[in-house]
Amino acid sequence: MHYSKIIGLGHHMPENVITNEYLSTVMETNNEWIVERTGIKERRWMDPAKDTVANMAAKATRMALERAKLSEKDVDFIVFATITPDYFFPGSGVLLQRELGLESIPALDIRNACSGFIYALSVADQFIKTGMYKTVLVVGAEIQSTALDISTRGRNTAVIFGDGAGAVILRASEKPGILSTHLHSDGRFAEELYVKDPGSSRPHKERQPEQILDTSSFKVVMNGNQVFKYAVVKFMEVIQEALQANNLKKEDINLLVPHQANLRISQYIQEKLELSDSQVYNNIMRYGNTTAASIPIALSEAWAEGKIKENDLLCLAAFGSGFTWASALIRW
Questions:
Q1: Rounded Cα gap, residues 147 and 129, in angstroms
Q2: Domain of 235: which CATH number?
Q3: Whole domain around residue 261: which residue ranges?
Q4: Are residues 265 and 163 both part of a single domain?
Q5: Is the pTM of this model over 0.85?
């Protein structure tokens, strides 16, 4: 029986910083309104001249490989979580493979939105446990800014989302690293947080219009109240599920790294688990919600800041579009 262990962490953010003050010049909003509802003070948006999902992922990967003291050639398998691939198809996994100069190794794309990274981590963990692969690159990367309705009409989502990439190197180990992962979904709520187009289930003329006059179906739609209501419940359930599966208690958690959806959600979970500020890592105030990239970015920063130490118990948890939710317990 093989175990899998995270041995390298990396992240990359676009240089373009978008402040709340800037957003107040292009829509009816203000810093106080945004901070009160989300906790976000700024976020990063891509530069079309510099950034792609794949090249940001490659930069995050190279940081993770350097920290792991490995090279690109050591990677056996790529699992890439994103809902914003560079192309409608193929997925960005093969584009990352190309960016890294690798040939023939498999690349799998995961499209589970905010839960995508934990889903991807779980997939990679299973491949290592079976002995099929030794070193797996797991990436979460997103460019969401170009799909936002940057106007007063779209402000409920436009102020929330950001761009970025995070990567981890997962390697076979004799000692447990990832203790367990727990994955769930409920498709009854798919349309509460989604982007409708480009979708395949349309008449030919709607899927391939000669001219698009109404682009609203290509933008993010979110029922914020419904998402918040379910998120706080499912976050708690899936964290408790992970702890119970490993005969552990909330007091055993050294660091909780939640998906960076909304600071109010993270604070609610922290209060319910009775965790101190030092036991929960949040960076949403700097980067906004980067969907599948948020957890690996936060992990990379937390490690760099010395907040993750040998033998620490880490809990990852996420909730998002689908609805999907997931957790992972990791012994560092």
A1: 38
A2: 3.40.47.10
A3: 179-331
A4: no
A5: yes
DSSP 235: H
Which of 168, 94, 77 lies closest to 131 in space, CA to CA?
77
pLDDT along the chain (332 residues), means of 10: 92 98 97 96 97 98 98 98 96 97 96 97 97 97 94 93 98 96 95 86 78 75 84 94 98 97 95 95 98 98 97 97 96 98
The answer to whether 311 is a known catalytic residue is: no
Candidates 55, 262, 283, 289; catalytic one:
289
Judge whether 259 counts as a catalytic residue: yes
Q: Which of 11, 259, 282, 315 is catalytic?
A: 259
Q: Residues 114, 182, 282, 283: which is the catalytic one? A: 114
Is 112 considered catalytic here? no
Domain co-membership, 193 together with 165? no
Domain identity same for 159 and 276: no
Q: Which of 175, 202, 221 finishes a domain?
A: 175
* Assigned token pair, 228: 């918040």
Q: How far apart are the C-alpha atoms of 288 and 40, rounded to whole Å?
A: 6
